[in-house]
Amino acid sequence: MPESNDVRMTLNYTIDISIERYGNLQAIGMAAETPLTYREFGDRIMVLAGRLAAEGVKQGDHVALLGENSPNWGTAYLAIVRLGAIAVPILPDLPEADVHHILNEMSVPVLFVTSRQIDKIYELNQKELRRIITLDDSAAAQDVLDVTYFSTYLEGEPAPDQSFPEVKEDDIASILYTSGTSGYSKAVMLTHKNLTANAYSAASMLDIIQPGAVFLSVLPMSHTYEFTLGFICPLIKGCKIAYAGKTPTPAILQRLCAHENPEVMFSVPLIMEKIYKKRVLPQIEKSMLLSLLCRTSFGRRFVYKKIGAKLIGFFGGNLQLMGIGGAALNPEVEKFLKEAEFPYLIGYGLTESAPILAGGPPGDPTIAVGSTGKPFSGVQIKIVDPDPATGVGEIFGCGPNIMKGYYQDEEATAEVLSEDGWLATGDLGYMDDAGNLHIRGRSKNVIVMSNGENVYPEPIEHKLNAYPWVVESLVVENNGKLDAWVYPDYELIDEETEGQSQAERRGYIDKCRESTRSEVNKTLSSASRLTKIVERREPFIKTATHKIKRYLYSGNH
């Protein structure tokens, strides 16, 4: 492919156009606080870029961001790339050892950090690190580390004659460490064009969303899913971004949505599944009339539409689109959303594709429930080595959003990236006749049984997770048989067994385990049936998008 390497697909050019176009509109702020306008946001980016340049940060340098979402995080990121430097966003839930590994490998001269994260760098021994800037002006670490407040660092006017090096679309904007479900994380190099191409595709799909609309941001910006769709896309469209600032429990979400009335939100399945299990199902189960109505498909649709309208009210009443991605959505929850006429879209992608490969388009009646919709605008998808009987093979993607490669790892890059730009995702799936992509699971997760049959654990887990007493589950192979590990909803069990003895409570859990196993087994092929369900006492360790890190549990019996 010929490389034009223009400047027009850079983040810098993209943001400049928006500032020019939407100057006085609200751009970015914490939910329920006064936001910055596009012009104010642009001025801050320029001042900060000038400060970093004066400090000696130059094109190609790595500058790290370790913190929760905030307007200051966004300002810092865009100031870094303004200079042609490379932003290294670190996921806030990474443990200290991983943070040290990333900072040492990237040898950063400047680190932006928040008070909640700063204790992870107390023991960091790194010569290159010249300045630590606290995004939330925290003085908490002052006695241990020499830190600079973000607001102090930002004081001053942008210099009128300030000029920065020219940045091109194929220059690297970001290096992101994947929070892999299969172990060792890799450093993904994404160019300006990788990120803007995907954001422009999303923006063109959201033609119903007008300038001034509100995007409520609840997922970490340090993950490409929220960065591209929840940060760059709304800025392209002249929308306002409001940051939740807290873990989005249903109660917190409801309060923030009542204040911000968002039109758009991006979520992971876990959030919607929690709302479905804690808010929707109990409404139906506690009412004899609703339970009765739900026995016929007409009655169920009527009930679901009523609940769907309530659910839109829960999200503030203005919701036009809820994007759901980062992990697979439980089919039962999706069926409910579809019949409730809730405005959701499923997306599929990887950090390596910045991130979206398939999703939408909104309003397309041919999108099948259980699929991730059509290939994203500008993206091609093919299924490699499909099984002749099922059509399932490995999913490959190609387009302007595919990464440049893994940082200083040509071998790993060559394993997933072909000469002509096709990315091997490691996921298995098939395309249906309407052009929808269906994901079957990770190729690494497939369990091959002794009779040679392939078992995909994810669909079995979805069936288990639909039970109210189950928070999450993991299906594992154990000596040629299948076991399911289940982390129960102890809150629900406490309610159901109130006033009972420890032995009775244990009996209740055993009964749940056995009845669930026998019910689920009735829906599975003989090779996929569960031998036992094992209670797990604590939650599974998960990635940033709430996928269980399976490699930690394989062969661990």
Provide keyphrases for this structure:
single chain, 557 residues, alpha/beta, Rossmann fold, GMP Synthetase, Chain A, domain 3, 8-stranded mixed β-sheet, 5-stranded parallel β-sheet
Overview of the structural elements:
With 557 residues, the protein is of the alpha/beta class. It folds into 3 domains: 11-205 and 224-231, ANL, N-terminal domain (Rossmann fold); 245-444, ANL, N-terminal domain (Rossmann fold), CATH 3.40.50; 447-552, GMP Synthetase, Chain A, domain 3 (2-Layer Sandwich), CATH 3.30.300.30. Strands 2-1-11-10-12-13-14-15 form an 8-stranded mixed β-sheet. Strands 4-3-5-6-7 form a 5-stranded parallel β-sheet, sandwiched between helices. A hairpin with an 8-residue loop joins strand 16 (380-384) and strand 17. The chain is globular and about 70 Å long. The protein starts with 10 loop residues before the first helix and ends in a 22-residue tail after the last strand.
Question: Largest beta sheet: what is the strand line-up?
Answer: 2-1-11-10-12-13-14-15
Please state the second-level CATH architecture of the largest domain.
Answer: 3-Layer(aba) Sandwich
Biggest β-sheet, characterized?
8 strands, mixed
Give the domain tally: 3
Distance, first to last CA: 49 Å
Low-confidence stretches: none
Strand content range: 15-25%
CATH superfamily name of the largest domain? ANL, N-terminal domain
CATH class of the largest domain: Alpha Beta
Structural category: alpha/beta
The name of the CATH topology of the largest domain is Rossmann fold
Percent of residues in helices comes to 25-40%
Number of helices: 16
Alpha carbon gyration radius: 24 Å
Number of strands: 25
